Amino acid sequence: MNNQFPRRLFSFLAIGVLTCGCGYQAATQQGGQASPTFATILPSVTPLPSPTATLLPSPTDTAVPSPTDTPTPVPVPLALEPFSKANASKINNLSVIRYTGEEGPVQMTFSPDGIYIIIMSRNLFLSSPTAMVSVRNIATGEVVSSFEVPENSVLNPNGTQVITFSEGKLLIYAAVGGKMIAEQDAGGLISNTLFNNALLLSPDGRFLVTQPSSGTLGVWDIQQGSSVSTIIFAGSYIHSAAFSQDDTMLVVRSFDDVYVYDTTSGQQITQVNSQMGDTHFFTGEAVISPDGSIVGISGSTTVAVMQLWDVHNGKLLATWSGIDRSGGPYQALFSPNGRLLAYSNWSDNIRVLDAHTGKLVRTFQANAALAFSRDGQFFAAASRDGVVNLWDMDSGTLLTSLPGHAPQVEQMIFNQDGSLLASRGFDATIRLWGEPPSGVAVVRAGVSISQNGGFSGMDSEVPQSWLASGSNPARYLISLTLQKTIVKSCPYTDNHTLNKVNNNLLVTITDLETNTVIALQTFEGIYSSADCPETRTFMYQTEEEVVGHAAPAEFKAWLLQVMAPLGFTP
Description:
Blueprint lengths: L25 E4 L62 E7 L7 E5 L5 E8 L6 E8 L5 E8 L3 E2 L5 E6 L2 E6 L5 E6 L14 E2 L5 E7 L2 E6 L4 E7 L7 E4 L5 E5 L3 E6 L5 E6 L8 E7 L5 E7 L2 E8 L5 E9 L4 E6 L5 E6 L4 E5 L5 E5 L5 E3 L5 E5 L5 E5 L5 E5 L6 E6 L6 E5 L3 E6 L12 E6 L23 E16 L5 E15 L4 E8 L11 E4 L3 E7 L3 H12 L7
Parallel strand pairs: 34-35, 36-39
Antiparallel strand pairs: 1-38, 2-33, 3-4, 4-5, 5-6, 7-8, 8-9, 9-10, 11-12, 12-13, 13-14, 15-16, 16-17, 17-18, 19-20, 20-21, 21-22, 23-24, 24-25, 25-26, 27-28, 28-29, 29-30, 31-32, 32-33, 35-36, 36-37
């Protein structure tokens, strides 16, 4: 992904895509002439002590009985109420899971019994890239297992297995515990390094798709341990791919064309030309409705575009456009019943469309990760400032806003019974949201950080020991807001403009327990020059160049002074 925009996790499970940026560039002259590696998920950072009981207390200390006297306790799910309009105001941050080394895609899912959350992180920049699987008990926060697998591994979306390749073998591990449960001779199922040998699993985890050679896709039945079909792919390269909910169809997007295949026979069902080729700087996803009848295709030219196509006859059903393309398409997601399609991009609101007509149904003020609850009643969407928002889909009412991530949220999932929402942020944390168990008070400790208006870099000046973690959500929110001031505008030919920008920093510290602002300070940006270059290569009509930033030392000195009376020390 373009460095101007945060990394994203594609809606399909890690098929190692390569996004092509083929944008317009115009060279003009002024005045009218042409991070650390990882090995394990880190333990929770111990928050500042609180005089009240913690959210998930440890069992009462007792004498250790003989193993023959007391059987090993069986883990049980945390007893929580499913989300509802009545309890939306009670939803809180129940737990914070911290990890490091996110230099590749991250996958997360819940175990089928609801007891564990399973996280797989990749580090693609080691000499021998690897992936780390970590399993946490949701009720206790305990890491019950952690094991390393090759980087070309995939986590089964149903939370039961981790699947990988090694020396021609397909290896299947139990997601909880890491025990190898099967080894299958995969033969020539995968033989090159195209797309980093990444794998794609069907929603129920039965079928596996790989690319054994250029122009060929292989479908493997994991349950039977045998090849199902070979798909001759006519596209130039694979940009994205996804299964229908019932596993019967596979949709594959190339640059301009989208292909739909029958999973078991490998035969092409339809091909559509989105006409989103060289005129499009950003190529988005191709997603398929749960019943496999409609394909949604996103992209952008001067504006962002969402197209809806009939799978069976290849006809264009609707086109929705008019969204500012800046940042390009981010995520597209069908509702569980397939009637709605939610679509986000990085610089605009989220649109919810009627999947059959393309008619605009709802507009939500958010622009990042999306998630429908499994019954489709609730819709969660995040904004780039790290706030998770929850809406009622029937009425379109905003039920609650949940700050905590810094800055943006990259992935969200609901658990099976709709009582928990997991959000994964760019700040290397996963937060679990839900109504606290009856009779248990939420104890707030530590701080969270949000960044608004862009990345200030000042989050690195906040001591790591202050950050909320474990079973204690943040007591204080440090909001870092960039306030851009244009100090000079540089005009060029063809109406291109370069704005030289000085970034002031507004810092707000809020007590989340009382919802009151306890400190407010603006730090002016410092710059030495704002001269206009003679020539400039443009990608957009108007562009910005930051020439000034607030001084980190000044910010940190003020922060330590404000937080010291509250018990926070370096």
